[in-house]
Each structure stands twice: as C-alpha cells, then as structure tokens.
Amino acid sequence: MTAIPVETLEQAPEPIVPGAPPPQPLAMDFWRGIADDNPVMIQMLGLCPTMAISNQVSNGLGMGAATLFVLVFSSLMISSLRKVIPNEVRLATYILVICTFVTIADLIMQAYSPLLSRTLGPFVPLIVVNCIILGRAEAFAGKVGPMRALADAFGQGFGFTLALLIMCTIREVIGSGTFLGFHLFGPHYEPQLFFIMPPGGFLSMGLMFLTMGWWGERKKAKLAGASK
Amino acid sequence: MIANLSWIFFSTLLINNFTLAMFLGLCSFFGVTTKMDTGWRLGAANTFVLVMTAVAVWVLNTFVLTTAPYLRTIAFIVVIASLVQIVEMAIKKFLPVLFRELGIYLPLITTNCAILYLALTQTTRGYNLIEGIFYAIGGGLGLTLALTLMASIRERLDVADVPALAKRMGLVLIIASCMSMAFMGFAGMGSG
Amino acid sequence: MTGHQHGGGAPATPTPDAGSSTARLLFTLAFFGALGGGILAYTYQKTLGPIRKFAGEKVEVAVKEVLGAPATLDTLYLVGDKLSKTLPQGADVLEATKVFIGYNGKGEQIGVAVEEFTPGFSSEVHLMVGFNPATTALTGFKVLSQTETPGLGDKIEKDPSFMTRFVGKLANPLKGTKSATTDASTVQTITGATISSKAVIKVINKAVGTWKPRLDAYAKESGK
Fold it and tell me: H or E segment at C175?
C-alpha cells in the first residue's frame, strides 16, 4: 500500500459512531472492495451466486450489474437515513430497503432483458440474502456519510463482478469453448462440459482459492526472507 | 398423486440437491461443517424452518399476495425472519437443552438462501400445500445429507497432512466438487 | 488493510438512540415498509407493460412456429373443463389457459397449439406443442422454457434437427428410442440427452392426451 498524504483524508469529521470504520480517502474506500477486501475472494461472501450462475460470461455480467445496482442504491439510502433509523430495528430496516431495490432490479430485468431474467431465474430475487449487501450495510453504510458509502458500494460491487467474471471466464471458455457466445477454438474443440455443470463450479472456485492460497504463502515466505 | 409427490421428494433430495447441485446455503455448508454433530443439527433446524416456510408461503400465495405479486420477495423474507425468530423463542422456552446445542445456528437460517429459494420456486412451480411440504422435506433432508457428509469428511481431514496453501477453503471446495459429481449420478433416476 | 484497528470490537449498543420508544421503532419499520411498497407499486405499473408484451409475443411466435406459419389463428379459452370462444368477465387473457387453432389460406384447419409442461431431469420442461387433433400427427414443438443441464439436456432447445424428427409423427402415444427409426409413432432421442428427450416426449403425450378429448368435445358441440 502506498503512503497517502494526510490532507486528502475526509474533511469535517463526523461524530464517531462506535465501531465505525476509520476515516480514509474515498479512493481507498473504493479500491478496498476490489482488491484487499474483495467480497468473494477475501471475505468469502456471496459464494452461492458466484458458483450457481457462473457458467456463462453473460450471466456474470447480468448478475454483477444487478448486485451493483442494489448495493449502490441501498447503501446510499441507508447511509443518508442512518441518523433516523433506531439502532434496535436497524437490521430489519436494512432488509426492507434491500428487498425494495432487489425487486426493482428484478422487475426491470424481466421487462427489458427477459432472456437474461429467464436464465438467472430465482437468483435475482435471491440477491436479498446475499450476505455482501447486508454485510456492507451493517459494517459500513449504516455508520458513515453517503459519499464514503457510495465509494464503498461501488468498490464492493465491482469487486464482486470481477470475481464473478473470473469464474465465468474459466467455466465458459473451458466448458463451452466460447466467450460471451463467440467460439474461440474452432470446430475441433470438444467442450469440457464438466466445467459448466455443478461440480465444475465447485472445482473452479476451489482452484481459484488454491491459487490465492499459493500466492499468500509465497508472499509470507518472501516477507519472512526479507526480515531475516 | 403418490408418484408425483415421491418424484418431488426424491428429485429435491438427490438430483437437485439444494447444496450440491443448486449451490444454496453454502455459507453454512462451508462455515459450520467441521463437526458431525453440528452438521446434522443445523440440517434438522433448517428442515424444520423449510417446512414451516412452505406452509406459510402457500398461505401467503393463496390468500394474501394474489393482488400484489411484486411484494412477494419482501413478504417472504419478512415471514422467514419472523418464523426463525419464533422457532428460536419456542425452542429456548420449551427445549432449553436443544437450544444450548443449536442456539447460535438458528439466526443463521434467516440468511440461508435455500429458504428463500424454496419460497420463490414453490411459487413459480405452482405447488399446492401437500406438494410444497414434500418439496420442503426433500430439500431439508438434502441439506442435512450434504452437511453431514461434508462434516464427516472434514473430521477426518483434521488429522490429515494438508499443504498450507489448501488449508483455508481450497481443499473443502474440491471435496465439495467430488461430492457434487457423485450426486450427479442420481440424474435420470425415475425417468424410466 | 491489516494495520487498522476496528475499534477493538467495542460493544455497538451505546448509541444516542439506545432506548428508543416502541412507537418510534414501529413507525420506522412501517415507514420503510410503506415507502418500499409504494416504490414497488410504481415500478410494477411501469414494467408491467413490457413484461406482458414480451410474454404475449413469445407465445405468438411459438404458436406460429409450431403450426408452420398459419394464415389465420383462432383462440379458445378453457373455462371450467370446457373450451369456449370467450372468457368470463374480468378474467386475465394472459393468465387463462388457451388453445390456438391455426388455419391455412383456404380456411382449412392445420392443427392446434397448446402449452404443456412436465418435470424434467433438473426441473421443468415447458413446451408449445402443435398437433392435428383428428390424427394426433405432430406439426412441431417449441421449448418455451427449460433449465436442463447446459451443453447436454438443453440440446432439446438448441438442436434444430431434434425438432424436425417429431414432425408428422403420431402421438398415440409417442415413444422414444436410441436408434434411428421410421416407425410412425417412435422418435429417436438425442445421444447424451436421453432423459431430456424423454421429457419432451412425455410433455407431448400429456398435451395430446389432455387436449384431444377437450377439442373433440368442442368440435362435436359446435358442429351441431
């Protein structure tokens, strides 16, 4: 992580809410979701949709967009209204807000992208129980101002989409020999159907985590070597 | 009638297993499957909530939501959250011993996507009350089966020599992949 | 990110709101519930048009396809257990169970098209089935929706040659076989998608089985 000049830290500090994330520049709030604190690869949240609908790149794009939409609007609304939401019922309120935006996303998708809506099926309304969204509302949006909540929501949303697209690319390219429907390898490629079926989803995810684990171990070893 | 019900039950239990084929409830599948006991207990709690949800959803769909289908998701999630709360209070009051063993897993059920998935698909498939209950029992036992199998494998894994890079999630996912593959063998069952 | 301390996990309870009155809690929930409901009602109104339009178009395209481009179409509605030319007052056209009758340019009946579904290998196969009610000869079918295994079972939708195998076959009832066949009521299934192919055959038999008696009864009644 590069050093950040102190001047760029958010001005006019708000009264500190207990458990609120420490002040940070907006760019960091955004970037954290994509890399250091990626919802899927680091926090391991939202695994269900990441495996369930990742057999085609187009599904991943649709799911990523719908989740981003819900994340951004619910974070914005929760953050703007955080001072009027009583602490005791905050989770119930968050769920109501999230449900509203999920249903909007679902209706819009049914109306203007019916084919995608048909493929994703119940996984669009299931965004409600995607732990990423409620998790961000509880850990972040409910405790900071709208600008930071927005930066965080975009970061987490793009981070989720990125993880989805990695999975989708692996599975569609190997499993169907296509990318976004375009044939990549010519007629002699026999698609490895295994990858677009359920066990392929678990396997691709497992391979992704193994790669991450290998990377982590290597980093640790390097650090240990440097400190000697 | 019987054939239809048994088809719903077995296809949800084995062929379309909620966890291994539909990728539902993975948080608890990976999170709490380190011990056999907790595995099947959580499965049993889930099955119970699933059956209650199936009944509640049928009531909602038949008597309440006929004029406002767009409120489905909200209504379902509110009902599920309340159900879990009620079940938790009831178990705490009447079965304190079970509550101590199960307590921390109960709130987790609300965010288990399998429950909401059941509510939504029961609606789109137009199941009646009896069909819905069989669907819920099949789904719940399927979850329990997957949780118990996974937990028993992971108990053995504790004493195995696993490379450091696979210690977090990697190996567990690959095991899940093998289990999912095994369950695919049930495909085609009953199609005669 | 690891350098930061997140307040050391301090208890989150002592906020200024601690101890809000029950009335305020209920009001907040009711307010957000009503707000959500209001926004959704509005969105629903706005999206209902396109959603219904698409559903209607999808059915129309499927009907024309399975009947081989009919010159004119007639629609009959299922009211109770009988077919009728009109719907009872207040019934929703899209929700009603319908049968479409196609005629060629000379006004002769080509066949009828109905929607039918049955459980498949991983979920439901939903078809538009076209057939001649007098002979039970098939004019075609179209997959309206399916969630079969991608790459295998979904060949019933994506493989156009599969559909052509059904045209002209007699559903009295229809049977499936793994090898090529010339039998009038046997169809060759897709290799690697036998179960899904059989699901299609099941749906077709179900469609002809349930609709032929209804159509015969209607023809008798209107013929008098």
Answer: strand C175-177
The crossing angle, in degrees rounded to 10, of helices A57-80 and A146-176 is 170
> Max alpha carbon distance in chain C (Å)?
88
The DSSP string of C106-156 is: TS-EEEEEEEEEEE-SSSEEEEEEEE-TTT-BEEEEEEEEE-PPTTTTTHH
Please report whether residue A9 resides in a domain: no
- Cross-chain Cβ contact A96/C32 below 8 Å: yes
Distances from the Cα of B88 to the Cα of B81, B84, B112, angstroms: 11, 6, 15
Domain membership flag for residue B190: no
Domain count, chain A: 1
In a domain, A98, yes or no: yes
Per-residue pLDDT of C50-70, as tens digits, reads: 988 888 888 888 888 888 888
Crossing angle of the two packed helices B129-157 and B113-124, in degrees rounded to 10: 150
Banded model confidence at residue A133, pLDDT cuts 50, 70, 90: very high
B70 touches chain C (CB under 8 A): yes
Please state the domain count of chain B.
1
Domain holding B100, by residue range, is: 7-182
**At a CB cut-off of 8 Å and minimum separation 6, what does B118 contact?**
B50, B53, B54, B57, B135, B136, B139
* Parent domain of A75: 24-227
Query: Which residues in chain B have their CB less than 8 angstroms from residue C198's CB?
Result: 191
- Say if residues B135 and B54 touch (Cβ distance below 8 Å): yes
Q: Is residue A11 part of a domain?
A: no
Whether A192 is covered by a domain: the verdict is yes
Interface touch B191/C43, C-beta < 8 Å: no
Secondary structure of chain B: what % helix, strand, coil (to 5)? 80, 0, 20
**How many angstroms separate the CA of residue C218 from the nearest CA in chain B?**
28
Sequence letter at residue B139: G
Measured between alpha carbons, how far is B47 from B143 in angstroms, rounded to an integer? Answer: 8
How many Å apart are CA B7 and CA C167, to the nearest integer? 30
Whether residues A106 and B73 touch (CB distance < 8 A) is answered with yes
Highest mean pLDDT among B42-46, B110-114, B134-138, C160-164: B134-138
Residue whose C-alpha is closest to residue A58's, from A145, A117, A130: A117
Gap from A104 CA to chain B (nearest CA, Å): 9
Instruction: Classify residue B34: in a domain, yes or no.
Output: yes
Q: Is A51 on the interface with B (CB under 8 A)?
A: yes
CA distance A188 to A185: 7
* Residue B86 placed within a domain: yes
**Cβ atoms B21, B15 nearer than 8 A:** yes
**3-state class (DSSP) for residue C101:** strand
User: Do A129 and B26 count as a contact with CB atoms less than 8 A apart?
Assistant: no
Low-confidence residues of chain C: pLDDT under 50: 1-18, 121
Q: Is B169 on the interface with C (CB under 8 A)?
A: no
pLDDT of res. B188: 67
ipTM of the complex, rounded to two decimals: 0.89
